[in-house]
Amino acid sequence: MSAPYTTLPEFKYVRPKSLEEALKLLKENGDAAKVMNGGVGLIGFMKERLVEAQYIVDIKGIGELKKIEYVPGKGLLIGATVTGNELLEFFEKNPEVREKFRALYEAASHMADAILRNRGTIVGNILEGLPYVDMSGPAVLFDAEVHAVSLEGERWLPVDGLVLGPAMTQLFPGEIVTEILFKEPPAGSKSTYIKLQSRTEYGIVNLSALLSNAGSPGKRDVRLVVTAATQLPYRAREFEENLKKAERIDDVLEQEAEKLANSLDVIEDPYASAEFRKHLIKVLTIRAFKTLSR
Ligand SMILES: Cc1cc2nc3c(=O)[nH]c(=O)nc-3n(C[C@H](O)[C@H](O)[C@H](O)COP(=O)(O)OP(=O)(O)OC[C@H]3O[C@@H](n4cnc5c(N)ncnc54)[C@H](O)[C@@H]3O)c2cc1C
């Protein structure tokens, strides 16, 4: 790679100790300021000149953003600066919560590697907005919402629809995501994450799937999110509805998985053709729901 893409432009770096101070710094510096979390994504974007920032507000020193809490009936609250490794440690100590949010646990175990997971955060991973990031699928699967705070006020935003592309989101300049809530899954549900990689750590097709009450059409819950194969996370609503109302999942699974795969506008790149990705979506969807209904 040539020089401009391996060097960082000059910028001013600040590491506020409180959320209020960080919000003030963002407001004062407008579009020139960017939030830095783990920095794994942001620094890369800056080197590639995909993101311009004259002012970096590093939020890692803000103590209140470093928390993980499971609230029965509500869900799993994860503070903005919680890293992949910290989430995995929490799951090791709380196996019941891990099983409730199994797809999130499996995805976090596959997020890059142990060194990157030491810095990369759950929230930063989602907001990075690249198609293959591992946290976005489980976030959409568990109807997650982020808490966005600015000097003007606060709001909760669903992760489904939050991301618009690489480093592009529905957040306003001046807003900081302080936490993310992965909502309590249906009682007795099982979930899983399947990541299919090709020569790199990035997935070419990632699936997040959830199933409850497999044997009872009236009570059954079915959820499926496709990532990595599509530019943005795709919640397969029509597939979910058709599986929910089927008398037996096995009767319709193959046909619905094929319909889903053919309906998607998938990525074509040097790692996998669109045709291969569609084939994988079909095969892996069948595998996910066969495993979950066992
Ligand atoms: C070699 C390599 C391999 C990788 N492999 C994988 C992989 O296999 N799977 C995977 O999922 N990822 C992978 N990644 C990506 C990596 O996991 C992400 O870059 C990282 O998780 C991003 O998190 P971060 O905390 O570093 O975010 P940052 O880089 O700090 O931020 C990312 C973006 O989100 C914004 N942002 C972050 N936090 C907030 C907040 N609280 N409020 C408002 N805006 C915010 C930033 O301004 C920036 O635009 C890989 C990266 C590298 C370099």
Unreliable residue stretches: none
Helix content: 25-40%
Mean pLDDT: 95
CA(first)-CA(last) distance: 49 Å
* Class computed from helices, strands and strand pairing: alpha+beta
Query: How many strands?
Result: 14
Strand content: 15-25%
What does this structure look like?
- The protein is α+β, with helices and mostly antiparallel strands.
- It has 2 domains: 185 residues, Uridine Diphospho-n-acetylenolpyruvylglucosamine Reductase, domain 3 (2-Layer Sandwich), CATH 3.30.465; 103 residues, Enolase-like, domain 1.
- It contains 11 helices and 14 strands.
- A 5-stranded antiparallel beta sheet has the order 4-5-10-6-7.
- A hairpin with a 3-residue loop joins strand 4 and strand 5.
- The protein is globular, with a radius of gyration of 20 Å.
- The N and C termini lie far apart (49 Å).
- The mean pLDDT is 95.
- The structure holds flavin-adenine dinucleotide.
- Flavin-adenine dinucleotide (FAD) binds next to strand 2, helix 2, helix 7 and strand 10.
- It comes from Fervidicoccus fontis (strain DSM 19380 / JCM 18336 / VKM B-2539 / Kam940).
Task: List its salient traits.
2 domains; alpha+beta; single chain; 294 residues; Uridine Diphospho-n-acetylenolpyruvylglucosamine Reductase, domain 3; five-stranded antiparallel sheet; 14 strands; globular; Enolase-like, domain 1; 35% helix; 11 helices; four-stranded antiparallel sheet; binds flavin-adenine dinucleotide
